Amino acid sequence: RAGEISVKSGEKIVFLGDSITEQGMGPLGYVRLVIAGLKTNGVDATSIGAGISGQKSNQMLARTDGLVARKPEWMTLSCGVNDVWHGAGGVPLDAYKTNITAIVDKAQAAGTKMVILTPTMISEDLNSPNNQKLAGYIAFLKELAAEKKCPIADLYADCQALIKTKDKPGNLLTTDGVHMNAAGNQVMAKGVLKAF
Fold first, then answer.
1. What is the pLDDT of residues 53-67, one digit of tens each?
2. CA distance 168 to 34
3. How many CB atoms lie within 10 A of CB 12?
4. Alpha carbon distance, N-terminus to C-terminus of the chain
5. Radius of gyration for the chain, computed over Cα atoms and rounded to the nearest angstrom
6. How far apart, in whole angstroms, are the C-alpha atoms of residue 129 and residue 123?
């Protein structure tokens, strides 16, 4: 039902991701804010931080079995920035599709419910080549979420909407164009809570 929180008290949520999620475990990070937001609404859930700096979809896939073995009820997946940002060392879209689909399939087969997060951005310049390239990865995630019936937090759209309103140069949501500042973490947390 609309307005009902899908996460229940006592449930575990794995936050799978890269440095954005690793930093999201910090005091002002989005992971902490999501858990606090659930608690405010009477849901006492536990977070399992699974963000590792620099990781791409192939490395997250390699960790999925171990995370699913911890029997979390939920897993959020934040993946794509490094797949694109690392250029030649990144993961091309076709391989990314295979990796992400496998992560979702493994989790769902084990009874873990997935929430897919779209990557946030690679620089606060909306027209940068990396952000243009990211668009294909995001389009795929939306298709996959619909196909696998996973809630999706379109964090890219949420970030872009705010960046379009910024009236001065410099970073609004990030420290360096990629990693979130306190405001960016709040945007991420709101998006994830909305998905839940």
1. 999 999 999 999 999
2. 29
3. 16
4. 12
5. 16
6. 10
